[in-house]
From TrEMBL:
Keywords: Aminotransferase, Pyridoxal phosphate, Transferase. Belongs to the class-III pyridoxal-phosphate-dependent aminotransferase family. One of its GO terms (molecular function) is identical protein binding. It holds the Pfam family Aminotran_3. It comes from the Eukaryota. PROSITE patterns: AA_TRANSFER_CLASS_3 (PS00600). This is 4-aminobutyrate aminotransferase. Its cofactor is pyridoxal 5'-phosphate. InterPro entries: Aminotrans_3 (IPR005814), Aminotrans_3_PPA_site (IPR049704), Class-III_PLP-dep_AT (IPR050103), PyrdxlP-dep_Trfase (IPR015424), PyrdxlP-dep_Trfase_major (IPR015421), PyrdxlP-dep_Trfase_small (IPR015422).
């Protein structure tokens, strides 16, 4: 016990305070839905690494795939050559994309990197600069994504100025909607569609459609409240984007890979993103993220403008392949759907 306490004290002293941990426990191992501390305590992990270990800690097949890849090829730098695990992962992901047009991929390490890559692609492809995000959104804590994140000021306080050209529009959070509260019509089955009206007003008053590259949305609002939008919201945003040549970027970092009962949350509304952002559950804890788009759009970026030393790491991609196989073999989506209770 004394040694464990000393270990935690060492971490408090030498790990940056800016992390903002929820606890000072020290984890030693994990299996399935449980983790064990260095004091021997067994804990049920409700966090799942903040939506990462969708298949449970140390899933045997994913672990075996990563171990085998470590003994074969650890690092195949993507700006030098392709490697087999990345090609295999693309083969696994293509059939489960929310739309068959999403056929071209690239991979990074973290969700924030992938979000920034999506913004780069949108600006390059459209030759426009502005990006619209939703009130309450979370897209990362890197310098670029701080300006896109609107869930808490703690992520960005003191770091301004941020990336320019970012505007904010309301997400349909019906229990906090002034219109719904005023009319006593709470509940998204009675949605007033005011957020769509506000989005149209924004395009008329703050960012002309001809200056707007993309609308970036979490299909299910994440830490802004874990809010499911009303049925017509995302289709209406898609229609608005189509009318004005604006790209729709769906950030499925947290809502993807089975967490809503579909591979990607966009499937619930039949909405096609122009760019899909993914991470977290893609490799069950290995650092891996990516974007998907159609080839014509993706190829608008110049060679060399994408990359990264560790992007699409071979071990992480091998884990991602195993995750995709487990999702199918163990009928994970069917299990989620069977346990789903409307709230």
């Amino acid at each position: 016990m004394a040694a464990a306490t000393a270990r935690a004290a060492f971490g408090v002293q030498h790990i940056a305070k800016g992390i903002g941990r929820l606890s000072n426990i020290v984890l030693k191992r994990g299996a399935g839905s449980f983790v064990w501390t260095d004091e021997g305590r067994k804990l049920l992990d409700f966090t799942a690494g903040i939506g990462v270990t969708n298949l449970g800690h140390c899933h045997p097949k994913v672990t075996a795939a990563a171990q085998a890849q470590i003994g074969t090829l650890v690092h195949g730098q993507v700006n030098i050559a392709m490697h087999e695990p990345m090609l295999s992962l693309i083969e696994k992901l293509k059939p489960v994309m929310p739309d068959p047009s999403l056929d071209t991929f690239f991979f990074w390490n973290s969700g924030a990197e992938a979000v920034e890559a999506a913004i780069k692609l949108a600006r390059m492809a459209t030759k426009r600069q502005n990006v619209i995000v939703m009130q309450g959104s979370y897209h990362g804590r890197t310098f670029g994504t701080m300006g896109l994140t609107k869930s808490k000021t703690v992520y960005s306080s003191g770091f301004a100025p941020f990336m320019p050209g970012v505007l904010t529009s309301p997400f349909p959070y019906c229990t906090q909607c002034a219109v719904a509260c005023g009319n006593d019509t709470l509940g998204f089955e009675n949605c007033c569609n005011n957020p769509i009206h506000e989005l149209k007003v924004l395009l008329k008053q703050q960012s002309a459609a001809s200056d707007t590259a993309a609308i970036l949305i979490e299909p299910v609002l994440g830490e802004g409240g874990y809010v499911v939008p009303p049925p017509g919201f995302l289709p209406a945003v898609r229609k608005l984007c189509d009318e004005h040549g604006i790209l729709l970027i769906l950030d499925e970092v947290q809502s993807g890979f089975g967490r809503t009962g579909k591979y990607f949350a966009a499937e619930h509304w039949g909405v096609r993103p122009d760019i899909l952002v993914m991470a977290k559950g893609i490799a069950n804890g290995m650092p891996l993220s990516g974007i998907a788009a159609n080839k014509e759009l993706m190829d608008k970026q110049n060679p060399g403008s994408m990359g990264g030393t560790y992007g699409g790491n071979a071990v992480a991609c091998a884990a991602g392949v195993a995750c995709a196989e487990v999702m199918q073999e163990e009928k994970v989506l069917e299990n989620v759907a069977a346990r789903y209770i409307p709230i």
